[in-house]
Design brief:
By secondary structure, the protein is mainly α. It is 91% helix and 0% strand. The longest helix is centred in the C-terminal third of the chain and has 85 residues. The chain is elongated.
């Protein structure tokens, strides 16, 4: 029974206890990082640490306020020019719309005049027919009157 318990303990330690494998991986990583790379990363960080202040000195101007006022003036000028362009574009668009509206109104007026002319001709025809009917009616009545009158 002792032998079975010992075998079960060995199997359990091999399957569930990962400490020896993890310790071996840690030793491998440390050896790889320290020995093979030769502190390459620390040298790289030191050189970057030297380059950053040099870049800051070269890149940043000493007269920051003067530069900001110049930038603000340029931005104001650009805004003014953009507003003028927008105003001109709006005026051109309104002019184009006005011309389009004028053309549309002229077309509508022409159509209106044509329609009025057609209606006038219809009324004239009806009037002529009514005058013709009335003249025939009165001429018949006149004939009837002449028949019955003793003159």
């Amino acid at each position: 029974m002792d032998k079975i318990a010992k075998d079960v303990g060995d199997i359990q330690s091999r399957l569930l206890d990962h400490k020896p494998i993890i310790n071996a991986e840690i030793r491998y990583f440390v050896r790889e990082f320290e020995e093979k790379r030769g502190h390459r990363e620390s040298r790289l960080l030191e050189s970057l640490n030297k380059m950053v202040p040099e870049a800051n000195e070269q890149m940043l101007p000493t007269d920051l306020e003067g530069m900001m006022s110049d930038v603000i003036k340029r931005l104001e000028a650009a805004n003014h020019m953009a507003e003028r362009v927008q105003q001109r574009e709006l005026e051109a668009q309104q002019s184009t719309q006005l011309q389009g509206n004028m053309e549309r109104l002229k077309d509508e007026w022409t159509e209106f005049v044509k329609e009025q002319q057609r209606l006038k001709e219809e009324v004239d025809e009806e009037h002529a027919k009514a005058v013709g009917q009335l003249s025939t009616l009165y001429s018949e009545k006149k004939k009837d009157l002449t028949k019955f009158s003793p003159l």
